[in-house]
Design a protein that fits this description.
Shape: rod-shaped
Order of helices and strands: H
Number of strands: 0
Number of helices: 1
Low-confidence stretches: 1-12
Mean pLDDT: 89
Distance between the termini: 168 Å
Largest sheet: none
Helix content: over 70%
Radius of gyration: 51 Å
């Protein structure tokens, strides 16, 4: 069996067929080329996104370290404040004790003065 009879159409359609096939090839080539360009753009965007992600990740790491240092400083400040509160309470108690002792001394002096005045005027 020979395919020679199928290679040309009787109405001269062989040229039309070749033209359609050439158009189809050109169209397919254009689609393929656009697809390739789209893939290249997608790859470029992916690379840029990856770079940005790495930068953001680096910045987040730095911020995390900064937050950890700040947390440590706040904990130290809290400990210092607790020590300061204890010292202030101790000083307040000492001031109160000193006031009480001073009041007792003043009362004793007033009592002694009254006693001396009573003794002095009682002997006259």
């Amino acid at each position: 069996m020979s395919n020679a009879g199928y290679s040309q159409l009787p109405s001269g359609g062989g040229g039309d067929h070749q033209r359609r096939q050439a158009q189809l090839m050109a169209s397919t080539y254009d689609v393929l080329q656009r697809s390739g360009e789209s893939i290249q753009r997608s790859n470029q965007i992916a690379i840029e996104t990856e770079t940005m992600g790495a930068e953001v990740l680096g910045e987040l790491g730095e911020q995390r370290e900064s937050l950890l240092r700040t947390t440590r400083r706040l904990e130290d400040a809290d400990q210092d404040l607790s020590k300061s509160r204890a010292i202030i309470r101790k000083l307040s108690r000492e001031v109160l004790y000193n006031k009480i002792i001073l009041i007792v001394i003043i009362l004793l002096e007033v009592g002694i003065l009254i006693g001396l005045l009573v003794l002095k005027f009682a002997h006259l």
